[in-house]
Amino acid sequence: MYSQGLIGVDSSTTESEEFLSLFQARVDREEKIEPNDPMPEGYRRTLVRQIGQHAHSEIVGMLPEGNWITRAPTLRRKIALLAKVQDEGGHGLYLYSAAETLGVSREQMTEELLSGKAKYSSIFNYPTLTWADIGAIGWLVDGAAIMNQIPLCRCSYGPYARAMIRVCKEESFHQRQGYEIMMALARGSDEQKEMAQDALNRWWWPSLMMFGPHDGESAHGEQSMAWKIKRFSNDELRQKFITATVPQAEFIGLTVPDPDLKFNAETGLYEHGEIDWVEFKAVVSGNGRMNRDRIRDRKQAHDDGAWVREAALAHAAKRAASRTVPQEAAE
Ligand code: FAQ
Known about the structure:
Layout: H1 17-28, H2 41-60, H3 62-66, H4 75-100, H5 106-114, H6 131-149, H7 158-186, H8 190-209, H9 221-226, H10 234-251, E1 262-264, E2 269-271, H11 277-287, H12 291-304, H13 306-323, H14 327-330
The protein binds Phenylacetyl coenzyme A.
């Protein structure tokens, strides 16, 4: 059994049955696992993977909306959008920090993203063509993110669970600002209503894909649920999202683009049509419409920010040096 955290432990480490069952018992008792606690290497890796992908999603997720900051239709909309995009940058930073507690550096994670090795949510590989897309992203993408992330506030790993609390509060504001944009458009001129419907048509199915493959195809789902990293399966969360969102579309007079959608009065759930998994796989494997642009733009932003990182390091070094000036020299 490990006496310390797992930083530096390699993946070939074998773990005794006793160690694994003691760990599982802690998880089952709903004890939070903290950075220096012993943990199975698989648990640590699963978290690094999921938290890293989540952080990258927040950072790449700034790009499609950032595209509209200069074109927001009013000052009020511009202020709200700026604040939202800034929040997403903040979410990425909390998440990178949470992942760092598991022994992986931010530089390593960034390198993985920019080299195309790391995944980020498929949803951010679709283009934002009109202002209504900003409404649809807030309403649907943040709506899906909240559905997925509220249970993560109860994740067994302490730093991830705690980061999620603030993230979810902010996502809830984002969802409302998006829905409010959609509501204004849906109640506007015929052209505006068409724009809102067109955005819903394009963002609906990709939003359902955010929840990942069907449970039967989810490679990590079962183990992540046993470790209480995930509390609900991909299909359960997708179903909750559909059930919450369809009435919101109806309320503003928009139509969900799924001819097979029907309400089952017995279960209280909506049955939905099949998702295009071929499209999902293409997007996840780097061949979506915007994958290349997103990585190119992210890399450009990273390169453009190099001087800021250098200046911050030089400033920190200067401050540290001034604090270590010998007493006589300071007098
Ligand atoms: N896109 O075995 P599972 C946001 C991958 S944040 C790309 O089911 P798992 C805020 C999966 O990674 C949005 N890849 O995996 C915002 C795995 O690949 P791997 C992000 C996907 O981890 C709003 C493989 O497929 N949220 O939107 C996707 O148990 C607006 C097999 O899948 C999070 O990351 C996908 N959609 O379940 C920002 C939440 N789905 O690693 C800006 C935390 C699956 O083996 C604007 N993450 N894959 O190579 C999670 O809850 C989970 O990781 C899931 C996937 C549910 C995403």
